[in-house]
Design goal:
Shape of chain A: elongated
Distance between the termini of chain B: 11 Å
Largest interface: A-B, 24 and 20 residues
Structural class of chain B: alpha/beta
Order of helices and strands of chain B: EHEHEHEHEH
Distance between the termini of chain A: 96 Å
Mean pLDDT of chain B: 90
Strand order of the largest sheet of chain A: 2-1-3-4-5
Radius of gyration of chain B: 13 Å
Strand content of chain B: 15-25%
Helix content of chain A: 40-55%
Largest sheet of chain A: 5 strands, parallel
Strand content of chain A: 15-25%
Strand order of the largest sheet of chain B: 2-1-3-4-5
Number of helices of chain A: 19
Structural class of chain A: alpha+beta
Oligomer: heterodimer
Amino acid sequence: MKSPLKILHLEDDSNDAELVRETLTAGGVCCDITRVDSQGCFVAALSTGDFDLALADYTLPSFDGMSALTIVRESLPDLPFLFVTGTLGEEVAIEALKFGATDYVFKTRLSRLVPSVQRALREANDVQDRKRAEELLLAEKQFLEMVAGGQSLPAILDAICRLVEGTASGCYCSVVLVDPSGARLEQGAAPSLPPSFIASIIGRPVNPDSGPCAMAVWLNEQIIATDLSSETRWASYDWCPMALSHGLKSCWSTPISSATGKVLGAFAIYYNEPKDPTPRHLALIEQFTHIASIAIERVQGDAALRRSEAFLAKAERLALSGSFSWRVASDEVTLSEQYYRIFELDPALPVSVELICTRVHPEDMVVLAEMIERARNEGTDFEYEHRLLMPDGSIKFVALVAHGIRDEQGQVEYIGAVQDVTKRRLAEDALSKVRSELAYVARVTSLGAMTASIAHEVNQPLFGIITNASTCLRMLTANPPNIEGALKTARRTLRDGNRASDVIKRLRALFSKKEVVTESVGLNEAAREVVALSLNELQRNRIIVRWELASDLPSIIGDRVQLQQVILNLLRNATDAMSGVTDRPKQLVIKTDREEGDCVRLTVQDTGVGLDVQSIDKLFQAFYTTKRSGMGIGLSISRSIIENHRGRLWATPNTGPGATFSFSIPRRPEAVVGIDSLGTVLKPAITNAERIMGNP
Amino acid sequence: MANYSLVSLVDDDESVLESLPDLLKEFGFAVRAFSSAEEFLASDSVAATECLILDIAMPGMTGPDLQRELTLRRQEIPIVFITADEDETIRPRMLEQGAVDCLFKPVSEAALLKALNMAFRVN
């Protein structure tokens, strides 16, 4: 309770007035009473004095209590108003209470006066507190709206300072911020403080010695300096004399902390008189440092977000990558700035899957459309490398990766990225060209080296054979014939012939695969493995693989690796055959089924250049090729492998474009033999060359 | 062609060593066969040899090594090289270094006769 209590007393009888004063003083109420006895004096007193309470007699010679009540309620609705009167009928009393009187006390029972006054003040206090709380809540709401509305931080902090200054009269407020390095104080807001005072605070180092705000920030503690004229802290920075020179006598500084506890700045209240904060002050400070922290965090968060967005955009640009999101159900597409740039799309156009597809190379559209359709239905992740056809006719290669997620409603949304891989792709193509040329050279050179070694080993006995035969002929045609000599040379011819044969045997032993692995092989799995290994190449050539695998295919006994070599060879041939195809989808059908006679068949069908009917027979001969870079031994070796599995390999032209290669193998061959043909002797060269190409 | 002119043969290959001397004898030459260049140099046939049929690749001293050694010793013997390596670049190299001819194994009777004729014409 404030003391002394300022009371306005409307009373014409000085004795009664004195009695009231005595009663109040006796009851422990310290008061300062202004007595008036006319309407004029009453109104004048009300307008000048800051009263806590009004007491009024009901009947006066020139005025009356009810009129006084009416006047008070018009201007001061919350001022407690008590009738202290001699006579008051019950009806009048009720009327008075209805008009807003707080209570009434009869002069004959003045003992009730003190409790009644105390109750009235308490109630008034409560009303005032509630009103103040409501006002502050409203202010808080307005600040939060300013924050949400994207108002600038200085404007918000300024408004907070002004509100506190309006609520706690006589004070001056400031907000200082901590700079990004955390080392110095920065300008926040100080609408009512002298600019020279704030200027001398801004830039001060954050430490316990440079001033109350710097200390509050440093310690993350509230700093109260009740009387700056007797304050001993911050002497090394002469802070107190500086503040005193601006007329400030007290300072309370409170750190502003983020939700995570990081100190963002300090909120300070100054008075030009020595002062201690009241609980109301402290509550006010707590409430508005909190609001300030929300505002600062939000604005700094926004700035960080903008920085991060700018950074991301820059990174995307550097990485030649764009990102997108795609809500499948609504077909809503969002693209990053760099995505627009890569696709050369106008950011002003409404973006849709259809718009994006206008940039996709027509030849790649079939596969992409299929992928999009699958994505719509299944929501599974997908990735694809495809081409873009730009309006100027140039081609770009992009790698697309998309990850599907489901929201709470189960709707699929894809988050993905595209990267412009044109440069890399062109480099890879150049590299792959060099590599295949290298592989060709390697095949030829290793073949050449082997031929030379075979030639050397065989030429020696051949020399003997020819020389012996010449000698033998001469001996036989001599006159007389030298039979004995001829026999001797004939025997030597025979021996040299055997020697040549031994050389061949030794070479074969050297190059042939020693052990033949026989195991149970599932053709479906074997084919899937080969395709998995070649996926990159197939995708690069934009080949669509269709599977028509028999689900109940029995396994066969054979050499898995060799059979996979055959499948790989057929796949390669098909890929090569379709390399020039542009007017139809490049489709590869891999099919397995059972054949009569307990055989298992695998078929590879392409939509490539097809076969020349006349040359079908020559296909499987060694060194026959229609390819510029081919050696013409792939199919020959393939046939050797299949025949060693007691199977057969054949080719048929399609009714439409392309060709079909098939092999069939009996489920239980009597035995799988080691490969025993020209193909095997040449095999190490193939294997080496293919190792260089990085394929099995 | 002088009868009994001495043709020496140096080759490490057994088939050659066994077959060629008989044919050369049929041609009417006296023949000495050696399985290495070292053996030939150590023999008493060097001075008497009128034509040398010499293998190129041999373990130890090679055919060209022997040719150089003979030049150093001022033994100017016409040399017909024979080799089992079908390297096209060998022949011009050997001819440049003074060989009468360079034949690739297997060697036909006609080619051998032609080379020997040339060797004796040089002589």
